[in-house]
């Protein structure tokens, strides 16, 4: 049996989570840097000073888990993080991901060859101004969902880079449970980053499986992603609690399981403060029940009875 999920009694930013088998503890409410780049996650931000200010405000508020990638921009978000926060404060954990690249037409592509992965790790190190990366996620699958198939070849490359001392810990992103099992046979996996939110809950069983092992589950697009969550149930419940629908969606995720870590992104200090405040929301049981039913209605709409 693996190490069970551990949390401290510290309730700030959703409380802390300790990644099993590591020296890493992070607050459960983190920050995702993707939106710091320009429109379409391409090029520099419209307002560089504002992007820097958001990062500094997040860290000042206690956030110690920042999610990024060198293919955001590309290179832009990592360079902004370095400009805003380097030299990095003690305890700040920067998690990046490899396995993708951007085309000149702003398209997204896999980049999973040995040389592409090696180059990506060195690019992250250079643009972040680091000698070693805390956590590197291997990004596979489609845009929103896993695609079955072996991930042994690319993951073995990251395991080699870990042995060389360029990476401390490895995670996987956009994977199925079978791919997770394959990955765990190659190297220790400390986190899984998949598509999940109050309306898209296909990973429910996987989250429980990971919690028993002390492995973090980090939902990407916790607020719906390119198509924001639209739910009259969510809107009504949020209104009853006098919070925004997005705050409620984030609070539900923190309530869902203690191994869930959040990385909502924003380029606005106002939205950053709203996101962080969601960690302090107490959810009544009837509201939780209403939100739990959202995924069922979404599934019913997608697969109507004949």
Describe the structure.
The protein is an alpha/beta fold and 306 residues long. The chain has a single domain (12-302), classed as TIM Barrel, CATH 3.20.20. 38% of the residues lie in helices and 14% in strands. It has ten helices and eleven strands. It has helices at residues 48-60, 76-85, 114-128, 152-163, 177-184, 204-211, 232-241, 245-256, 269-277, 285-302; strands at 16-18, 25-27, 31-32, 65-67, 93-98, 100-102, 108-110, 133-139, 167-173, 189-193, 216-217. It has a seven-stranded parallel sheet with strand order 3-4-5-8-9-10-11, with helices on one face. Strands 1-2 form a two-stranded antiparallel ribbon. It has a two-stranded antiparallel sheet with strand order 6-7. A hairpin with a 6-residue loop joins strand 1 and strand 2. Helix 1 (48-60) crosses helix 2 (76-85), helix 3 (114-128) crosses helix 4 (152-163) and helix 7 packs across helix 8. The radius of gyration is 18 Å and the shape is globular. The N and C termini lie far apart (43 Å). The relative contact order is 0.14. Mean pLDDT is 92; it is low at 1-9.
Write the layout of secondary structure elements.
Elements (H helix, E strand, L loop, with lengths): L15 E3 L6 E3 L3 E2 L15 H13 L4 E3 L8 H10 L7 E6 L1 E3 L5 E3 L3 H15 L4 E7 L12 H12 L3 E7 L3 H8 L4 E5 L10 H8 L4 E2 L14 H10 L3 H12 L12 H9 L7 H18 L4
Parallel strand pairs: 3-4, 4-5, 5-8, 8-9, 9-10, 10-11
Antiparallel strand pairs: 1-2, 6-7
Helix pairs in contact: 1-2, 3-4, 7-8
């Amino acid at each position: 049996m693996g190490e069970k999920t551990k949390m401290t009694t510290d309730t700030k930013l959703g409380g802390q989570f300790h990644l099993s088998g590591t020296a890493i503890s992070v607050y459960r409410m983190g920050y995702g840097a993707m939106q710091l780049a320009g429109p379409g996650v391409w090029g520099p931000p419209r307002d560089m000073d504002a992007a820097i200010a958001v990062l500094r405000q997040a860290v000042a508020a206690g956030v110690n888990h920042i999610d990024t990638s060198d293919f955001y921009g590309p290179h832009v978000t990592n360079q902004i993080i370095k400009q805003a926060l380097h030299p990095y404060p003690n305890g700040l954990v920067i998690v990046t991901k490899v396995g993708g690249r951007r085309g000149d037409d702003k398209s997204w592509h896999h980049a999973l060859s040995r040389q592409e992965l090696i180059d990506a790790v060195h690019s992250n190190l250079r643009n972040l101004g680091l000698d070693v990366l805390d956590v590197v996620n291997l990004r596979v699958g489609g845009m929103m969902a896993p695609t079955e198939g072996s991930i042994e070849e690319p993951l073995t490359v990251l395991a080699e880079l870990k042995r060389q001392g360029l990476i401390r810990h490895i995670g996987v992103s956009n994977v199925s449970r079978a791919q997770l099992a394959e990955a765990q046979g190659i190297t220790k996996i400390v986190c899984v980053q998949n598509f999940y939110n109050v309306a898209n809950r296909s990973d429910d069983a996987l989250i429980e499986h990971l919690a028993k092992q002390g492995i973090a589950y980090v939902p990407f697009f916790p607020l719906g992603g390119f198509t924001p969550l639209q739910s009259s149930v969510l809107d009504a419940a949020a209104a009853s609690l006098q919070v925004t629908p997005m705050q409620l969606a984030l609070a539900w995720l923190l309530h869902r399981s203690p191994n869930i870590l959040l990385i909502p992104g924003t380029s606005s200090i106002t939205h950053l403060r709203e996101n962080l405040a969601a960690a302090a929301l107490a959810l009544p049981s009837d509201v939780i029940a209403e939100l739990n039913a959202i995924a069922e209605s979404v599934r019913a709409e997608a697969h109507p009875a004949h």
